[in-house]
Amino acid sequence: MMTLNRTFIFYAVALVGFILLPQLIAVKYYLHLSVLALIWVIAAQGQNLIQGYTGYVSIVQAGFMGIGAYSTALMGIHSDMPVWLTITLAPFVTAFFALLTGYPSLRVKGHYFAIVTLAFNMVIFIVLMNFHELTQGEAGITGIPKPGAKDGLFNWRDRETYYYFVLIIAVLMTALAALIVRSRIGQTLIAIRQNEDLVGAIGIAAWKYKLFAFVISAMFGGLAGAIYAHYQSFINPEIFGVAQSLDAILAVIIGGSGTIAGPIIGAFFVVFLPEYLRFADSFRLILYGLVLVLATIFMPRGIVGVTTDLMAKWGRGKT
After folding, report:
1. Residues 145-174: pLDDT tens digits?
2. Which residue ranges run through the membrane (predicted)?
3. What count of other Cβ atoms lies within 10 Å of the Cβ of residue 160?
């Protein structure tokens, strides 16, 4: 009960902090980065379901973000559908492709699964880059409507308005991820991560649960991509390459794999850290990679794991 109360207090304080954040930021560019970080929270929560809880490292999350982004962009430009509807439909379009790719890829395990999903991300990137008639290729798609263009309820061109919109979606998706993890399905996913052979031995069809996690993970990615497309009003294939899928993986690892808070912390980490390293100029990416490697080696359980250990030691010290 005490742990539950602490968890509730933590998330309540964090939510209040996120609500007040735009009022505390003096430089509006950092508000822009905060919007991007919240979008990555959504994608990372999805990545965490398949990676952190099921134990399968998927290297295709950015590809699924691309499917969601291009789906909503094309629907928004070439139809009269309101933006809220195209954003809602984008995750389901992504889920369709995840089903097509998930069944064959989940027949393999471990590193082989990671390689197969990496190949899928590369295929998605190549299709987006070369299908000029639909995707405009490397030039990308411009003029993607913001919600205000057709829905006119708020001033969506105001960055602060979009921040609160993305915050609401990120909170809802984080709550959904927590509900899944705490459900019977979530407990089965954790069991698969711990001992998949034993799960199969007691008569549970592990592949169904893995496919569920993979598809839901993709839907999170598709939603994140759709929100990103309407926020930036521009997308091109470079945004959804393998490097961005690695960012999703790192967000989970750095924040804390297999925790709900981990992807939140990790998403802000992978968005803000490269910006703070800009002083290094041409060495920025080298320093970024070095920080990530050191963090992975010395904090294998992520920031959440380290914080939990420190709090436990502090608690024992008081007693």
Report:
1. 887 644 555 555 678 889 999 999 999 999
2. 7-25, 31-50, 57-77, 83-100, 112-131, 162-181, 211-229, 249-273, 285-304
3. 15
